[in-house]
Specification:
With 257 residues, the protein is an alpha/beta fold. The protein folds into 2 domains: 171 residues, P-loop containing nucleotide triphosphate hydrolases (Rossmann fold, 3-Layer(aba) Sandwich); 77 residues, no CATH class. It is 33% helix and 23% strand. The protein contains 9 helices and 11 strands. The strands form 2 sheets. The chain has a 6-stranded mixed beta sheet with strand order 7-8-9-4-10-11, with helices on both faces. Strands 1, 2, 3, 5 and 6 form a 5-stranded antiparallel beta sheet that branches. α3 crosses α4, α4 packs across α5 and α5 packs parallel to α6. The radius of gyration is 19 Å and the shape is globular. InterPro entries: AAA+_ATPase, ABC_AA/LPS_Transport, ABC_transporter-like_ATP-bd, BCA_ABC_TP_C, P-loop_NTPase.
Length: 257
């Protein structure tokens, strides 16, 4: 595996009782790039994410991260390597403050994640870094607000801040703009571009205006297999891709600029 690629899959396959959800996918994610995984509903995108983070085990094939075979490793080991994932549903603690949410993620570095008997003041050493991360995602002024009070888009921004707190080398973002209005979509789009400056991002995303504006490389899945790969300008003109998207809500693929 070339040092140019941070993540590579080799014939990655997942079968569920005879149904092939992911079929011999060969994915190569270039270091420092934003790579989007797209495809019609049921194409196997989320299953592919679940395989990469070991929430499910592949039927066959290999997963390499930084040149090392991680196929047999647990989700916890994958996370410790620096592969950190966000989910389609915002996963923040609603009744903690915005600052406290980030601080919980930072606790891992102190080795006190499960030391519930320690006084809260022992965590204040993390406040400076937590505030830095909040400013990085434009949430600095919301530090004292309860997470439940945030708009949906800002909750996703908070989730990205907590993901950044884990110091990911590779961020996997699952539908980061799902269910958002235009203003929130634009905020999260800019945020993803901003945080990609010194890390690699692999994202599943339906919004083609987001994909076309920030993704360096796009992999199109259909029925669990790779249909096409390349930059947006090339993929969006691929006849097989256009045909795969026609008649679906995703038909905005062409001309999404």
């Amino acid at each position: 595996m070339s040092a140019e690629y941070i993540l590579e899959t080799q014939d990655l396959t997942k079968e569920f009782k005879g149904f092939v959800a992911v079929n011999k996918v060969n994915l190569r994610v270039r270091r420092g790039h934003i790579h989007a995984l797209i495809g019609p509903n049921g194409a196997g995108k989320t299953t592919c994410f679940n395989l990469l983070t070991k929430f499910i085990r592949p039927t066959s094939g290999r997963i390499l991260f930084n040149g090392q075979d991680i196929t047999g490793e647990s989700p916890a080991h994958i996370a410790r390597r620096g592969v950190i994932r966000s989910f389609q549903i915002s996963a923040v603690f609603p009744h903690l403050t915005v600052l406290e949410n980030v601080r919980v993620a930072l606790q891992r570095k102190l080795g006190t994640s499960f030391h519930f008997w320690r006084p809260e003041r022992s965590l204040h050493t993390l406040d400076g870094r937590a505030r830095e991360l909040l400013h990085a995602v434009d949430l600095g002024e919301y530090a004292g607000h309860l997470a439940v009070e945030l708009s949906y888009g800002r909750k996703r921004a908070l989730e990205i801040a907590t993901t950044l707190a884990m110091e990911p080398e590779l961020m996997l973002l699952d539908e980061p703009t799902q269910g958002m209005g235009l203003e929130d979509v634009d905020r999260v789009r800019q945020l993803i571009k901003q945080v990609s400056a010194d890390r690699t991002i692999l994202m599943v995303e339906h919004n083609m205006s987001v994909v076309s504006s920030i993704a360096d490389t796009i992999t199109v899945l259909q029925r669990g297999a790779t249909l096409a790969e390349g930059p947006y300008a090339e993929v969006s003109r691929n006849p097989a891709v256009v045909e795969a998207y026609m008649g679906s809500a995703d038909a905005e693929l062409v001309g999404a600029h």
